[in-house]
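Lab notes, practical 5.
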Amino acid sequence: MLHKFTQWRGASVTASDGEVGTIEDVYFDDEHLHVRYLVVDTGNWLNSRRVLVSPYAMRMAESTDTQIPVDLTRSQVEDSPPVETEQPVSRLYEMAYADHYRYPYYWSGPLAWGATAHPVAPDMGAVEMSPAAGGAPIGLSEASQQALDAAHRSHLHSCQEIIGYQAEALDGSAGRIDDILINDDGWCVEHFVVDTRRWLPGGQVTVPAEDMLSINWGAREVHLDADKQTVRHSPKAR
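Output from the prediction step:
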């Protein structure tokens, strides 16, 4: 099912024993164009601390437009590694986060979620654990080393940050990023909603996220592998 990022902001996230907080942002990675975390503002119960919640925990079959239940307890969330959302989330932090919840490392295999195409957490009670790997499943030592080598790099980007960026086609400005469409079947970033009205006739259109070439954070631009004519004739946004 497709979801607009802007409609998710402010939706509540509920654990098995109570509310965790409200969605403030969504982080996706620029390698696979998949959502990796919701950024949740916990409000007063954790002194307005922000926490990350992985799609591994989300029960989307039971969700609504205003509420997403997660397969976690408030205690698990409270004990999760602290994160500074103003700074890039490093791979080293992601390892600590995955170890806390006993999730597999999504970057450790050939598919979007490591060994699987969807964020389905294995029965970790049946997986042999390696103390030497810091609680990571055996067989991930090479991936762990690669992650440590890249500990200060981040492939995660904020959906909130991108809203308002210029959509730069191959032959010039094509519009402005107004929204991001996320498919919860696999948690892929599927389309950018581009408002072309100031640059081109056509209003709001949806451009495949796979057409993204790069993001220029300094210039606030998303560069697309398409010309203005192609963007103009993209499907209308609903």
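Observations recorded by the TA: The chain has two domains: 2-157, 163-232. Helices lie at 5-8, 74-78, 91-101, 141-149, 159-162, 228-232.
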